[in-house]
Amino acid sequence: MPRSAFLVPLLLLLSLSVFASGVHGELPEVEFQELLGRLQNDPAAIASLRRFTAAPYTSWTSPDSLGTSTPIFANYTFKVVLYHVPPFVVIEDKEAEEGDPGNLNNTRTPGNGKLSGLTIDFLVEIGEQLGCKFEFLYPCKKAYYADNKRCSDLDFRSSAAALTIVKGGVESLLYSGISATFCSDYRCFAAGALKVTEEVIRDFFPTHPYMEKGFKIVVKAQEAQISFMSWAGPFEANLWIVVICEVVFVALIFMITEGYGTNPGLPQNKLGQFLDSFYWSLTILLMVADKAPTTHAGRTLVMTQLFFTLLLIAVYTGNLISFLLNKPLISPMDRFQDATEETAEKFGAWKFCVPQVQTSVGKWLDLQERLNDGLKFERIQALDLVDCVQKVYEEEADVTFYDEPVLLYRMQNNFYSRGKCGFPGGFCSDSAQTDETSCKCPSKDTLGRCLPTDNEWTPLKGNLITRGEVFNPFGYALVFRKGTVTDYMAFGQATQFVKEQHTIDRLENQWIPQMDGMACSTTSNTLITLGLENMQGMIVLTAGIAAIGLAIGLLEHFISVCVKVFPCCACLEKILIDIEAELEREHDHAARGDHTNDGAKRILDHNEEENEEEGEKEEEIPLPPPEEASVEDAVLELQTRLDRIEELLVAATGGGAGGSAAT
User: Fold this and answer.
1) Contact (Cβ atoms closer than 8 angstroms) between residue 442 and residue 425
2) What three-state secondary structure class fits 195?
3) What rounded mean pLDDT belongs to the chain?
């Protein structure tokens, strides 16, 4: 037995011993040196340890690199197995009803427009960079075509079928144009919207991804119901709070700048000042100010408030009509986690539609059920993605999901552009008709009368929309047969170069529609007018404020009637007026430094003194009846009154003044 035969296991034992030495102790120095010497003296043993040998690989030099860039695949032709997956690959006459099943005769090419899509345009760009050519095929089983004279939907739409052909084997021989020698030189790959998954990496050579995307859910959204506060919808609640606080703040500033006696329009007591200032600030906001400022600070504040009012009214009125005419949409789900997280706001047992052709949807749901104990999705089966989206539109299912680019393309071309949207919307039993009128009357006779038809129109309300963030991110790549040929590396380098040139960004904008840009084909262009439901909240609120004003007016009228009818009410009114006047005088005293606080008492004392003086006057100087008084008595009475007035003046001005007056 050669020595190399036992040196290999000996080296393994040596490795295990070195590993064990880190736990149970060091390997004896003598034993280690002996094993190392025997290994060094046996080249055959060293060679037997080489489990991997260096392999040649294909490399490509980009035009931006140093040196000369040459098309390394000049005159090479690669076989590309496609499958129908718009917007990445669109195959014309994919059923092969006009012949050439599987495109064996290469009758469908990018040049004649019978092959198109984002991936097709990407391959054209890659071919120009690498200098290679392509022959395109797609899956079509021989037996099915022989029996039905057409290719099966389950074949030409299946990514699994395309990968089966590239991988080779007995199953690949079931498809048209595939023989045992197909791709014997390993110059073949699959293309479409192939994701880089664990299975793909295990069985194939994928290139560097040329696009990164993920799953997106699609649900049916309905119009939100008009609420009492819809008129306030252009502003959020916190913004309305800020506006109210601004009005109050400006009122307080008015009290400071205009309320210290310079503005006759403001009362002197603080409560009256605040109420009048608040009303002033509010009327400025409504562009009908009822007062004029008298100070420079007040004028500046009014200018600021007017500018704020201008901006507020412009923003509010600019959004109000759009908000009232375009009702917001509400959706049953906002993200995929609403079906998996019990703490989610819209958590529930949602019904998922699972397409048979797009197997990745079912696999993702299976994974989530394994990761979440007790989670079980309610599933509704359908043939493909379009059928699933149709079930969501008809409300047979709550939600479905798939690759975002494919989903958006299908929504635009199979639903929005065909009238399956809007309020109201619907669909016709004849898929060629996109609105109710043409569905019920697809053709007319010479007199303009509708010909009989079996078409049925199904009215539906709602729009299909995508919701939430992208989940389960992945990359799309070209997938090569696994073997010793490494052409996929050069394709990966060229892919990265094309991405850096923003070619993929341009292709995305060209082929993938955006949710915000989708418009329903049946949307009416007639003028939309507001109805009572749009304005009912504002009408009720205005009526409520008017009712409050009316109640205050009726109360004032009632008081005025009471004053005229009941004398006690008149006395009460007089006392209230006197108290208000005294409060104003107290304000004046405070401004002059007089801090007397017994104003109400002085009012009552003042009233009592007036009553006493009036009583004294009546007692001291009685007036005789006019019919009994003579001229002499009238003169005497007048003299007496003048003397009394003189005495009062002397008492009021002092003795000196009185002496002067007497003199």
Assistant:
1) no
2) strand
3) 80
